[in-house]
Every structure is written in C-alpha cells, then in structure tokens.
Write a structure and sequence with these properties.
The structure is a single chain. By secondary structure, this protein is an alpha+beta fold. The protein is 29% helix and 27% strand. It has 12 helices and 18 strands. The strands form 4 sheets. Strands 6-10-11-18-17-16-13-12 form an 8-stranded mixed beta sheet. The chain has a 5-stranded mixed barrel with strand order 1-2-3-5-4. Helix 4 packs across helix 6 and helix 4 crosses helix 12. The longest helix has 23 residues. The relative contact order is 0.11. Bound molecules: 4-amino-1,4-dioxobutan-2-aminium adenosine-5'-monophosphate (4AD) and magnesium ion. The site of 4-amino-1,4-dioxobutan-2-aminium adenosine-5'-monophosphate (4AD) has 22 residues, from strand 11, strand 17, strand 18 and helix 12.
Length: 433
C-alpha cells in the first residue's frame, strides 16, 4: 500500500473494502449496461466492472470512452470472484482518466517480430513480456543473493578497457580522448586481480561482443555474472557453477510459478535442473557423441550453435563439457598438465536445445606460459602488463566462470530467441529503441 492507493498484487488483503487502483487499461469488453475493464498496474491485472445501474452517468460515459492503454485511476469495492485468475474483481464506484491514449499501435491481433521490436518500449507492457522480465528480475536477484550469502565480495569491473579478453574479432572500439578503448567483453581479467585481494569475488554488468552472427543466441550487449575464486581448480569451478545454477533454477521455480505458467513453460522439463549433480563429459566424449549422431566435427574445433543444440538434447538437465582443445579457447586458460593440448576449461550447456549458458575454467598462473599464450594470440604484451603482475606477485591457482543472464532467462522461460530476454535488445542490425 503506497500513499493513497492499492497495488493489484496486494488485493487479497482488501476483500470487502473500497480501494483506489492506479494503472492503465489493458483491455475492455462491453455489453449495453456493463463495462469490463482489465486494469493493469505493473504488479498485476484485475477486472474492474462498471455497472450503469451503480455509477453516476458521468463515470459510465468515461468508461465508454476509455481506450487501450489509457491511464486511469479507479475506486471501487474488492469482491471475491472465482472466475477471476487472481480470485478478485473490483466493483467500480468512481473513475478518472489520467490520459486518454489514442491509436495504441499494439492491438490484440498478431504482429510481426520486426514491428514489435520497433515498438519494444510499448511491447514491454504486454503480459508475456511482463512475465519474462519478472523472471529476469528474479534470476538477477537470486544470482546476487547466491554470491552475497556465500561471502563473495562484489567488485565492479570497468566497461572501457585497453585490450581484448575474449578474442579480437568481437571487439567494439571507442575513442577515449584520443586513445582507443574497447567495450569490455568480460570482467574476468579484473576479477582475477580482485580475487588476489579478496579471495572470492564476483561482478555483474553489461558486456559487449561485436558478433557478426545473426543467431537466436547472440546479442551485442548482454549481462554477465562472473565469480572468480583464488586457490580454485577446475573441479572447484565446476562444483560452484553446478551449485549456483541449480540454486538459481530452484528459486525461479519457487518464486515465478505464475509467470512460467503464463509463458506456457513446461515446468516439468525445468525441474530436474534444480537438483544436483549435473552430468560432466569431456570434450573428447562430446565429439564421439556428436559423431555417433552423424554430426561432422573435427577434433580441435570449438562447438558452434548446431553442435551445442545436438549435445543439449542428450540430457534432461544442464551438463558440463570440460577440457576443450586449448587451440580453440581464450589465451588465459591453463593447459591440462596431463594433456597439454587441452585447456582446463568448462562450458555448461542447458538442455532442450538451448546450449551454452556458462563458460569458465582455471586460469594460467605461470608468467612464462602466460606470455607464450599472449604472443601466440597476437595480443599486445604492453596492454597486459598489469595482468602479468598478478603472476609476478603471489600467483596462485585460480578460476571462475561467466553466466550469460539472457541465455539463462531464455532457457528458463523457454523462449525461441534471446531478444525477448533483455528489456532493450542490441543485436546486429538493431540499436533502437
Ligand atoms: O564463454 P564466454 O565468452 O566466457 C567469458 O567471457 C569468460 N571470460 C567468463 C569468465 O570465465 N569469467 O561467455 C560467458 C557466457 C556464455 O556462456 C554465454 O552465456 C554468454 O556469456 N554470452 C553471450 N550471451 C549473449 N550474447 C552473446 N553474444 C554472448 N557471448 C557470450
Ligand atoms: Mg564460451
């Protein structure tokens, strides 16, 4: 209850009482003497019934004039109604139009995706987008809570950076007073510095990739949560990723039942993900399984969307693929001492065809070997001077991972395309609205 009005989400506490609701008209149905107004206020939608017999003529005329998405304030009595999805409706007594909306562009009819994307600023009001954003909000809240409750220190990484972290082909560059700065691809390198200061740390922020691929999995701006842990090896990293993701899914299942239902998400396909352990397979094993399904894959290639889709149909819950060939992974990965051609890394793939949601592993902690990799990747050593310091002064084994929020929300909500998992998506070919 805020000053002077009630939210739909609190309505059950007000049965039998007169309340004031402030919101927008989602839809309207009328019969001669009755108007059924679907009023949404951001916390929920409730039917408000205007009966000609019960209200002043002026109130009835106002509700006659009401159009979709007009803003309004209604006062009326809350009554239980078993036909209502939320169990209550409001018998309107008075009504005020705050602003009459004319020609709202998104109607009940089917619209094309491009049209909806152009109107993303309005599309967010629809019940489906509302449900997705509520799940996203829960995923983020639960993620922060997970690391906060386990004594990880939040360390914010910079967005303007001097060098690539995840490969030079997907860098956005900007002019920073005459110097080139790149938009960060990952906070990881800074988190490694922070882990040497605080032990266990995480960051959460926007990251950028100039991906030239138009796929259902790629955004150019996305949000990533990245923990980093000193004295962690690959197994510790995998244990952490598994514990975090299963906890996260459990919280969404607890807190977002109604949203998942409104998205018609098959919750039974999600439930296994709330239980540990998750299967773990090596890259070698993954290649064999792909070949057994007639997917042509060369040992040494990274998996693309197609391979991931096939793999992610093999298990009913998320699973980890570990020890990829070092040649297809980033420069900072530590090699497996038992098989140096492999990197001590892991990806977590979501089931039902969703594919990679987490990438991480153990980092190279030896200066000489790190230098070889910086050179082999053609990266400028000068830009990594500070990062090299971390291997000069008290270097320890360490590792971490990054989870993409939108990929995760897309999987949890069962979305066909990642663009609906972020409020204002940036993709190749789209920077508006
Ligand atoms: O696998 P990536 O590239 O790993 C890193 O950036 C590491 N530095 C993270 C770390 O170890 N701290 O990205 C991590 C995750 C992916 O698994 C995916 O979920 C997401 O970020 N991601 C994207 N999401 C949307 N659009 C893109 N273009 C993405 N690229 C990566
Ligand atoms: Mg990756």
């Amino acid at each position: 209850m805020a000053a002077g009005h009630t939210y739909v989400s609190d309505i059950a506490r007000f049965e039998g009482q007169t309340v004031t609701l402030k919101g927008w008209l989602y839809a309207k149905r009328s019969s001669g003497k009755l108007h059924f107004l679907q009023v949404r206020d951001g916390t929920g939608t409730i039917q408000c019934v205007v009966s000609k017999a019960d209200v002043d003529a002026e109130v009835f005329e106002l509700s006659d004039a009401l159009t979709q998405e007009s803003s309004l304030v209604v006062t009326g009595q809350v009554r239980a109604d078993e036909r209502s999805p939320i169990g209550f409706e409001v018998g309107v007594e008075t009504l005020e139009i705050v602003q009459l909306a004319e020609g709202y562009p998104i109607g009940p009819k089917e619209h094309g995706v491009a049209f909806l994307m152009d109107n993303r600023h309005l599309w967010l009001r629809s019940s489906r987008q509302h449900a997705i954003m509520r799940v996203r909000s829960t995923v983020i809240r639960a993620s922060r809570a997970y690391f906060d409750e386990r004594d990880f220190t939040l360390i914010d990484a910079p967005i303007f950076t001097p060098a690539a972290c995840e490969g030079t082909t997907t860098l956005f560059s900007t002019d920073h007073f005459g110097e080139t700065a790149f938009l960060t691809q990952s906070g990881q390198l800074y988190l490694e510095a922070a882990a040497m200061a605080f032990g266990r740390v995480y960051c959460f922020g926007p990251t950028f990739r100039a991906e030239k691929s138009k796929t259902r999995r790629h955004l150019t701006e996305f949000w990533m949560i990245e923990p980093e842990v000193a004295y962690a090896d690959l197994d510790t990293v995998m244990d952490l990723a598994e514990d975090y993701v299963s906890t996260l899914v459990g919280r969404v299942l607890d807190e977002c039942r109604r949203e998942l239902e409104s998205l018609e998400r098959d919750v039974s396909a999600l439930e296994p993900a709330a239980e540990k352990p998750y299967p773990r397979i090596s890259y070698d094993d993954a290649v064999e399984r792909l070949r057994a399904r007639d997917v042509a894959v060369e040992w040494g290639d990274d998996f693309g969307g197609d391979e991931e889709t096939v793999l992610s149909e093999l298990f009913e819950k998320p699973f980890l693929v570990h020890r990829y060939p070092a040649s297809c992974k980033a420069f900072y990965m530590k090699n497996d001492p038992e098989r140096p051609e492999l990197a001590l890394c892991c990806d977590m793939l979501a089931p039902e065809g969703y594919g990679e949601i987490v990438g991480g592993g153990q980092r190279e902690d030896d200066l000489a070997r790190l230098d070889e990799k910086i050179d082999a990747h053609d990266l400028p050593r000068e830009s990594f001077e500070w990062y090299r310091d971390l291997r000069r002064y008290g270097s320890v084994p360490h590792g971490g991972f990054g989870l993409g929020i939108e990929r995760t929300v897309g999987w949890i909500c069962g979305l066909r395309h990642i663009r609906e998992a972020i409020p204002f998506p940036r993709l190749m070919g789209r920077v508006t609205p």
